[in-house]
Amino acid sequence: MEIETTAKIFKELGHPTRLKIFKRLVKAGFEGLPVGSLQEELTIPGSTLSHHISNLASAGLIQQRREGRTLYCVVEYARLLAVISFLQDECCIDMPASLQDNQQNNEK
Fold first, then answer.
1. The predicted structure's pLDDT at residue 101
2. In sequence order, what are the residues at sequence separation of 6 or more whose Cβ sits closer than 8 angstroms to the Cβ of residue 103?
3. 20 to 30 A Cα–Cα from 9, which one of 1, 2, 18, 42?
4. Nearby residues of 49 by Cβ (< 8 Å), 6 or more positions away
5. With helix as H, strand as E and coil as C, how does the chain read?
6. Within a 10 A sphere around the Cβ of 51, how many other Cβ atoms?
């Protein structure tokens, strides 16, 4: 994942309301939640919620799907996992091998 892409994702998640929305959608799982349920549950005005959903979608963190008259928001879990991997991939890579071994032994 590119650093610019990751920075945009963190920028969007850096807003408390967007983070609340995203966290709630993560809890909902692969089916997502209807926008109306999100609005009701998080007590966010419709226009404000729409703005935040748009930002999350533009960062590729969520997608929307329509079922009849209901609009659902669903987390893009592959994108979420890519961000987590971006942070973990080089974890402790500069640490001397002897210290890495000690750390791994302490975790067991």
1. 67
2. 92, 95
3. 42
4. 21, 35, 38, 39, 42
5. CCHHHHHHHHHHHCCHHHHHHHHHHHHHCCCCEEHHHHHHHHCCCHHHHHHHHHHHHHCCCEEEEEECCEEEEEECHHHHHHHHHHHHCCCCCCCCHHHHHHHHHHHC
6. 13
Query: Is the Cβ–Cβ distance between 39 and 49 less than 8 Å?
Result: yes
pLDDT below 50 — which residues of the chain?
none
Matching residue, tokens 């974890």: 91
Report the predicted TM-score, pTM, of the whole model to 2 decimal places. 0.84
**Size of the chain in residues:** 108
* Side-chain half-sphere CA neighbours of 46 within 13 A: 3
Integer Cα distance of 62 and 100 in angstroms: 36
d(CA 13, CA 16): 7
